[in-house]
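pasting for ref. prot 1 ->
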Amino acid sequence: MSIDANIAHVELNEDGSGILHLCDRGSDGSRGQDRLRFETAPPEVTALNGLSIWGGASWVMLGDVKIADRIGYRRIAFIERDAFLDAMRIYHDLGARA
């Protein structure tokens, strides 16, 4: 159940639920699932559009920081908003230095 993907786009419903639509990050076709569903998300979740994520059977990472827990094969639960925002900041700060 590993994931190594870019987020093609975030589909967000009015009730706060939605789907992360995933595409392959590289040419090896290793994205894992084609989508991950969530029940709730931080309001800033659409900032994930175009970013790279990776993970295993129990977590999803943005760079080196966990942003969600895996719940089964195709569902995730995002971490709390403040921690999500910290993960986004760290991801962009490190990317700016690379």
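and prot 2 ->
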Amino acid sequence: MTFDTTAHIRKMQPSVTKLVRHFKNKGVEFSPSPDDNGFNNVTFSIKDKIVKISDHSFYRYSGIAYIYKDSDNNSVEAIEVTDEMYLTIFMKPILELLLK
């Protein structure tokens, strides 16, 4: 079985659209296309700041799938990280910091 990046990006598109809209409202432009050097990056830019993030990281081809929290009875509960959670909890703060 091979990983279908196109299908994966399509599945994430509603969450990506929401994140992009958030930054667009702040004047940040988004480009999902390969950059001038042919690397597969997504690019966020505002004024003279440009942030490039690899497709692999931005679209979470691999990475965090679960977070864990302590339960009341001294056990640990696994919580699945959804696409929306990943983009909101992990990617959004990174981009906000880098695009200040």
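The chain has three helices and five strands.
Residues 5-98 form one domain.
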